[in-house]
Write a structure and sequence with these properties.
Elements: E1 15-24, E2 28-30, E3 33-41, E4 46-52, H1 55-58, E5 63-75, E6 78-82, E7 88-94, E8 108-113, E9 116-125
Parallel strand pairs: 4-6
Antiparallel strand pairs: 1-3, 1-5, 2-3, 3-4, 5-6, 5-7, 8-9
Protein name: SOSS complex subunit B homolog
GO molecular function, one term: DNA binding
Keywords: DNA-binding
């Protein structure tokens, strides 16, 4: 299991992690498929999680989700954690999980590593917290 703070963008990831859903955005249609975005976190970091199809109805705020074989990549210039075609998202509990809201891994500007262009490294923090789901306090 990886912590959210350990994930980095890549064309082909294989991320296995667990997190709690802090906030869930509205469901929208992307072509013929439902899509929604959520703010999720574990005890190390937060990230934007993209849900597709049945995932939009299956998970709610407070759900603890285990994600297997997932990816952390760009979709329409937004860096998102998502199950992808090979991945699996499963509810494994609710409400009782320690978490932090910063850093938000989706709010970091990532650039190719100068010594290996297949690896990305953080260049700068775009925002200390989610710009999609701003803090309420």
């Amino acid at each position: 299991m990886q912590s959210l703070k350990e994930i980095v963008p890549a064309a082909s990831n294989n991320i296995n992690t667990k997190f709690i859903v802090l906030e869930k955005g509205r469901i929208a249609l992307e072509g013929k498929q439902k899509m929604c975005l959520a703010l999720v976190a574990d005890e190390t970091a937060a990230v934007h999680f993209q849900m597709w199809g049945d995932e939009c109805d299956a998970f709610e705020t407070g759900d603890i989700i285990r994600l297997e074989n997932s990816i952390f990549s760009y979709n329409r210039n937004n860096l998102l954690l998502r199950a992808g075609k090979r991945g699996k998202a499963e509810k494994v509990g609710e409400f009782t999980m320690a978490f932090v809201e910063t850093p938000n891994m989706s709010e970091i500007r990532w650039v190719p590593d100068p010594s290996n262009s297949k690896i990305y490294v953080p260049e700068a923090v775009i925002s200390p917290c989610s710009r999609v789901f701003p803090p309420m306090h």
